[in-house]
Amino acid sequence: MTHIMGYRRPNGEIGIRNHLLIIPTVICSNQVSSRIMQMVPDTVAIPHQHGCSQIGADKDRTFDVLAGTGRNPNVGGVIIVSLGCEVVDPQELAEAIRPTGKFVEVIDIQAVGGSVKAIQHGIELAKEMRAKLDQMQPEPVALSELIIGVKCGGSDATSGLASNPALGAAADTLIQHGGGVVIGETTEIIGAEHILASRCSAPETSEKLYHIVDRFEKEVERMGADMRGGNPSPGNIAGGLTTIEEKSLGCISKCGTAPIQGVIEYAEDIPKHGLYFMDSPGNDIECVSGMAAGGAHLVCFTTGRGTPTGSAVIPVIKITGNSRMFERMSDNMDVNVGEMLDGTLSLESAGNRIWEEIVAVASGKLTKSEILGHTEFSINRIGPSL
Amino acid sequence: MTKAIEAGASAIVMDARDHVATAIKDLQAGDHITFMKKDQATELVLLDPIPFGHKVAIEDMPAGTEIRKYGEVIGRTTADIFAGQHVHVHNVEGIRGRGDQANAKQGGTQ
């Protein structure tokens, strides 16, 4: 396999899906956005809780995630649904997406005269845009164009023993082909940051990595909170994980062995080639949404306990090293490397199995989360709202 | 950090420095397990049942020992642990991200 099938966007970027995305600027326009999605096939809306009364860094983060999701190359067209009085400016949002050259339209509920008229207008726009998108044909593209996120969630002891190292082998393969890999979850490298820091290609990168972990840990201390209240989670503990340090040491093997080229902010554009670290929460949906906003084409998601979640704009490939869970949750799981624990599947073969799935999904094969319509979306918050 | 797993193994040790093996089958108290450490097979009798994915001590550790898996510290023992015993949240605690302890040291603010 030397290529994937992608949609070439006007700015030269490659999408592996051709979504029509409906973005509410604010919680108040969620319902209108969802109604438009229900009425026009092959559209996806991203309802969220933000966009009103936010200030400073918190408001910027909402804007950056919405704009980044709109810019994701898997999105071919965007309809922004605004209420009209929110702090996230819909025209600014449209301007942040337009340089990609994709179709962008804005609807203002207050200006058009309420929900019914806004929904009607939205349906008309969506039908027209969808018809244009449906004329586009995917073309063969080099593997070096691909950017994947690596993520784990609902971990158990098999994650660190099997699925994460296997995903790491696949991540190394993509980097050897010239592609990009991003790993996140600052909370979940605590206790293992020294290993990642020793792999940074420049001293400043390793300092930044230590800095973001220290910043997070100080915040936990400032709050007087016990990390153990949420991490490892009750499911992690039932699965055999005892401490955050143990979980972290199992987590980091999913990004393979390449040098870390840089540490980027949550939702910041992910550079195309090599391995990067994104400062993000461990929370599954917030982390995947940040990677999607940063331009990842797909996320490989390892889990031992099992989770159904997907993403609004990028395929999420579910990988497990727990054969019992794979049998139990076959509706939700894409790849099983559980035979590694029986000693009948080598790390190399497990990595190849995941790599083949990445190439197939990047060429159009639907993931289980896509088939089931899992389009989760969530924005990480960092500051006060008024 | 990753190694080949022997076919039919019931527990795996990730690194020569480790104090624990991870069960890759449901194991009962009294079961004999064999694990490889530094390419040497060692046999151990389990003192507790060890569920799939959970850890068993492969050497005796006094309370307060920095305990290792993957060759790295994963926490500290809170009780004396003997080889063959279940190692988990009842006898090991994390060291990192412990705002509760930082707070207690300052006399508490709540």
From TrEMBL, chain A:
Keyword Iron-sulfur: no
Endpoints of the signal sequence: none
Family annotation (Pfam families): GD_AH_C, GD_AH_second
InterPro entries for the chain: GD_AH_C (IPR048332), GD_AH_second (IPR007392), UxaA_altronate/galactarate_dh (IPR052172)
Domain of life: Bacteria
Domain (D-galactarate/Altronate dehydratase C-terminal): residue spans on this chain: 143-383
GO biological process, one term: D-galacturonate catabolic process
Protein name: Carbohydrate hydrolase
Originating species: Paenibacillus yonginensis
UniProtKB/TrEMBL annotation, chain B:
Alphabetic keyword roster: Lyase
Domain SAF: 18-93
GO terms, biological process: D-galacturonate catabolic process
Matching Gene3D superfamilies: 2.30.130.110
This protein's record includes keyword Lyase: yes
InterPro entries named among the record's database cross-references: SAF, SAF_UxaA/GarD, UxaA_altronate/galactarate_dh
Keyword rRNA processing in record: no
GO-annotated molecular function: lyase activity
Name this protein carries in UniProt: D-galactarate dehydratase
